[in-house]
Specification:
Rossmann fold; five-stranded parallel sheet; 241 residues; Ybab, Chain: A; 21% strand; 32% helix
Length: 241
């Protein structure tokens, strides 16, 4: 992993994605799939997908709040070919709720996930990751809470390995993620860490149309005849698990 204290910002998410792609380009991955957290992770993920000649898909996480306390997360749903529900058992116990109490909210969020996937991917099924390298990408990570939920759900889908790639994150968050995945690639770990947007010259809110356009430019999935993909470049190893 490269650790950089940088005063200068990334020019854009696209530039940050190109830098990350260079870090990943010398690695050997098993039929990699790039999984971007929308919206901000999509243009970053596109640059990685292009370099690795890997398909780009989305991983969307929706919070399930406690009834009457919607900001208190009792669970989360992660989308995919089959959705995964990750429970926060501690919160559920404190709030005295069980899965049945969350059913109404779960169904509402499933509808929202389906709506977003239809908008972004026009109903395309999630790309399977079993036995493959799942590269989870965002444009920056602060606490890592949402990403941790996604990782927990992705593990249920039996990828060969899970890689996290992000342009910027605080060092303590990176250290925490090391224990959850196989490798972490992070370009900048500033201290103090204030906000992701401060590390970009252009950090505009992405529109749905920009997400759709980026996904349309991503490489297609390859048939299961190629055992692994090694992209040309110099290896810059990630953080070992």
């Amino acid at each position: 992993m490269t650790r950089r204290a940088r005063a200068a910002a990334f020019a854009s998410r696209e530039q940050a994605g190109k830098e990350l792609a260079q870090l990943l380009s010398g690695e050997s991955f098993e039929r990699p799939v790039v999984l971007a957290l929308p919206r901000g992770g999509v243009p970053v993920g596109l640059e990685i997908a292009r370099t690795l000649r890997a398909p780009l898909d989305l991983v969307m996480v929706r919070k399930i709040g406690v009834p009457d306390q919607p900001e208190l997360a009792a669970a989360a749903i992660v989308d995919g070919d089959q959705h995964d529900i990750v429970l926060n058992e501690e919160v559920m116990a404190l709030a005295h709720v069980d899965l049945a109490d969350l059913e109404t909210t779960i169904q509402r969020e499933l509808v929202e996930i389906a709506r977003r996937r239809d908008i972004y991917l026009r109903g395309r099924a999630a790309i399977p990751i079993e036995g493959r390298t799942a590269i989870v990408v965002d444009d920056g990570i602060a606490t890592g809470t949402t990403l941790k939920v996604a990782i927990k759900a992705l593990k249920k889908r039996h990828p060969k390995e899970i890689i996290v790639a992000t342009p910027v994150a605080p060092a303590d968050t990176v250290e925490t993620l090391r224990d959850l995945v196989d490798k972490v690639f992070c370009i900048s770990q500033p201290s103090p860490f204030i906000a992701i947007g401060l590390h970009y010259l252009d950090f505009h809110p992405l529109s749905d149309s920009e997400v759709i356009e980026a996904l349309a430019k991503s490489p297609p999935d390859v048939p299961d005849t190629q055992a692994s993909v090694t992209s040309p470049g110099t290896s810059n190893g990630g953080l070992p698990h």
